[in-house]
Design goal:
mainly alpha, 6-stranded mixed beta sheet, 20 helices, 64% helix
Length: 517
């Protein structure tokens, strides 16, 4: 299938993938374990807390201390666009936490599907084959990382969308000389997440190598300075600095401490490797280069192998103690690796005008995850950005198949995507089932308290220590209060006072504070 019919079929397949994602989406009204729940609760809280009163500062909670002074806890190191959109999605829910969680997840699913659509357009631009493009994209997006974290309500999923948009803009420029999508994509992508610098840096580095090869040292300096890659990078850096300066200004105004002591500044310094590291923090074994590369190699494999059961089987086989089976698996793995490398080499040398853009796609996810060691080492969800490596690999492999088979390949890729989505959403639903009563309890608590009330959270500091992160979302709009100024108390102790203001709750109960009139 070529031309318009191939493109129409590809879009029908993409819309089917969107329907699968939305219909099979997890229905749990709870936060999942690990990073998924931690960041979803934080992202929902920060989106809900964004307001004009606090100059659109990103913060996780409001508090009142023993002296009656109020303040906020900033978490202000990200561009705010994604959180503005999250806050907008939450705004029509009438303070219902279940609705807010569901709308936030749907927004993320739409961003993830948008990234899938952009990756298809990107590969369509580079390969000229719509069905090959959609097949490689669907297989890349069928990995554990994309299907597990695609509804995590934080700016990382929108950043995947921005990442693809920047890559598409680079490909359009390399193929057609068009700068509009490149400029718009860079501005929008960086407003969604800092990860979008990785394709621009990769493009600039490869542009330097190309100039050195064609123009020599002196000529390459002049050529690089005049290149569109440099112009776009300068614009992108200026834009990012402006966004960050606004964040830092508002955080400094909120906390009243020197710039170097701001939490966001210290976090950025650590993540960029300017401070800390395995020498300063020997307990961070993940930062040792050997451990880091071993973990990233496993993440690349996990990001490349589609579907959770297939990856789990490969992982299980790789740890077998049977020496014969280990040898067989090793030989099989080397054969598959050799085949994949052969396909990549054939693809590369079969390309002409697309070569540079294809290399940018292939290396940009690797550059992000490997260069940002002091961030990505601790956050497995950053392996979502390996999807560009995976889809390039699938593009190379599928390009060796007969053109007439592409219709069946596309249908099979959609089936793999659908299986992965349904399978991992079933897993996620099971993980959240035991915590759903927490959300219904807080829905009742919110109805009683309303917003901007002073609430003592726990009879002791330790009572809800493990629940501190999700509580920031459940309590968004109210103040964590010292007991001397509290109007309400939340505790697990149903017998704390009589009567409880939430008699139908199961685990968390609301009471009038003893000091409240």
């Amino acid at each position: 299938m070529k031309g318009g019919s191939g493109k129409l079929t590809a879009w029908i397949i993409l819309l089917a993938a969107l329907a699968v994602s939305l219909v099979s989406a997890t229905r749990t009204h709870a936060f999942l374990p690990g990073h998924h729940g931690y960041l979803t609760s934080m992202g929902l809280a920060m989106g809900k807390n964004l307001d004009h009163e606090h100059h659109y500062l990103l913060f996780t909670r409001k508090w009142v201390n023993a002296e009656g002074k109020s303040g906020v806890d900033p978490h202000n190191r990200f561009p705010i666009l994604a959180y503005l959109l999250i806050g907008g999605a939450e705004s029509g829910c009438g303070n219902d936490p279940s609705c807010e969680m569901q709308r936030g997840r749907v927004l993320m699913l739409l961003f993830c599907w948008g990234a899938l659509a952009l990756s298809t357009l990107l590969l369509m631009e580079l390969s000229g084959n719509p069905l090959l493009a959609v097949s490689a994209s669907l297989l890349g997006f069928s990995s554990y990382f994309l299907q597990y974290y695609n509804d995590m309500v934080f700016n990382d999923v929108p950043a995947v969308f921005g990442f693809m948009l920047v890559l598409f803009g680079i490909a359009r420029f390399e193929m057609r000389g068009s700068t509009f999508l490149l400029t718009a994509g860079a501005l929008l992508g960086i407003a969604l997440g800092w990860q979008c610098y990785a394709p621009l840096v990769t493009w600039w580095i490869l542009q330097v190598f190309r100039s050195l090869k064609t123009a020599g040292l002196v000529g390459s300096v002049r050529g690089v300075l005049r290149s569109q890659a440099t112009k776009t990078m300068v614009m992108a850096v200026a834009w990012g600095c402006l966004l960050l300066a606004v964040n830092v200004f508002h955080e400094k105004a909120a906390l009243g401490v020197p710039v170097g002591e701001l939490p966001s500044v210290r976090s950025i310094q650590f993540r960029l490797g300017m401070k800390g590291g395995s020498e300063a923090f020997p307990e961070y074994q993940e930062l040792k280069w050997g451990n880091f590369f071993n973990k990233q190699a496993r993440r690349v494999m996990k990001a490349t192998i589609p579907t959770r059961p297939l990856h789990a089987a490969v992982n299980r086989w790789s740890e077998t103690q049977n020496s014969g089976l280990r040898l067989l698996l090793g030989v099989t793995g080397l054969a598959l690796l050799a085949g994949a490398l052969f396909c990549l080499v054939k693809l590369y040398f079969g390309l002409k005008q697309q070569r540079l853009a294809s290399l940018v796609v292939f290396f940009s996810g690797l550059l992000w995850c490997l260069s940002m060691r002091q961030f990505t080492a601790f956050h497995d969800f950053q392996a979502m950005f390996y999807v560009v490596f995976a889809m390039t690999l699938f593009w190379a492999i599928l390009s060796r198949l007969p053109h007439k088979a592409m219709g069946w390949v596309a249908a099979g890729s959609l089936a793999v995507f659908a299986f992965s989505a349904v399978d991992l959403n079933r897993v996620k639903t099971g993980e959240g089932r035991d915590f759903e009563s927490r959300t219904s309890d807080f829905a009742a608590i919110r109805k009683v308290t309303g917003e901007n009330r002073r609430i003592q959270v726990g009879l002791t500091d330790a009572e809800f220590e493990a629940e501190f992160v999700p509580f920031r979302f459940y309590m968004a709009g109210n103040f964590y209060s010292d007991p001397t100024h509290a109007e309400f108390v939340i505790t697990r102790d149903r017998s704390f006072a009589s009567p409880t203001l939430t008699p139908n709750n199961h685990e968390y109960f609301l009471f009038r504070a003893p000091s409240s009139p």
